[in-house]
Amino acid sequence: MTILFRLILCLMLLLCAACGKKGALIPPDGLVPPPVSGLRVVQQGELFRISWLAPEIGVSGQGGTPLAGFRLYRRELRSPGDDCPTCGADELLIRTVELEFLRDVLREGNLFVASDGDVRSGKSYQYRVAAFEQSGAENRDSGRVKRRKVQPPPAPLLRLEEVPAGIMLEWGAVQVKSGTLSGYNVYRLRPGETISFRSLNTVPLTENRYEDLRMEQELRYRYRVRAVALVEGESVESDPSQEVEGRFVLP
Q1: pLDDT single digits (tens) 9-53
Q2: Residues 29-148, CATH architecture
Q3: Which fold is adopted by the domain 158-247?
């Protein structure tokens, strides 16, 4: 066997080994934005709220690639133990979030919050958020979060009373059909705000009342309360109560 023939044979074998199905081209890490952080999914009423923290806007490692937005993916899990981080073919792109046109996605600084109402009770889902830059190249290393939809507790009935130097909120006790009632979360909106991401209380309140003394004069505040329950191992909030409004009253 001549040397030339051997070289030709080796070349043919290399070409055959490389003729498999080609995967999607993944740009080098320096050409895509850094991954998001703090990915979290909570259930409020019948909706899932998906939140994440954006990387530093306009900066991508040493490449300086500008951030254009995010892609939110969802995958329905086949079984409770389903854990397939490489099942990209099963993922469904449910939202493209452009920084210049947020639509129904809410933003507070580097915190972004999206809603997903296309989920069914008793089903579990896995979410992933990928940052992408102007060319469309995205960072796939964003982490994944699982969440099971359960039966939420009913919303409480709220009433408000203006008291000297503050606001007194009271609401009726909620009876849960399944799970265990954990307490209640109080949300407050200042003038001009459309949504509050964080409750005034750090842990669910076990009493059916809350006094807000951290108010500014001449401002009118709006309040809502959500019941919190532990159902099938998942902490879930109710839909919000009706909204009530009050203001600071001098003693």
Answers
A1: 555 544 444 444 444 444 455 567 788 999 999 999 999 999 999
A2: Sandwich (2.60)
A3: Immunoglobulin-like (2.60.40)
For the residues of the chain, what is the DSSP string, one character each? Answer: --HHHHHHHHHHHHHHHT-S--------GGGSPPPPEEEEEEEETTEEEEEEEPPSTT--TTTTPPEEEEEEEEEE-SSTT---TT-GGG-EEEEEEETTB-TT-EEETTEEEEEE----TT-EEEEEEEEEETTS-B------EEEE--PPPPPPPEEEEEEBTEEEEEEPPP--SSSEEEEEEEEEE-TT----SS-SSSS-BSSSEEEE----TT-EEEEEEEEEEEETTEEEE------EEEE-B--
Decide whether 29-148 matches 158-247 in CATH topology. yes
Domain boundaries, the chain: 29-148, 158-247
**pLDDT tens column, 9-21:** 555 544 444 444 4
- pTM score of the predicted model: 0.78
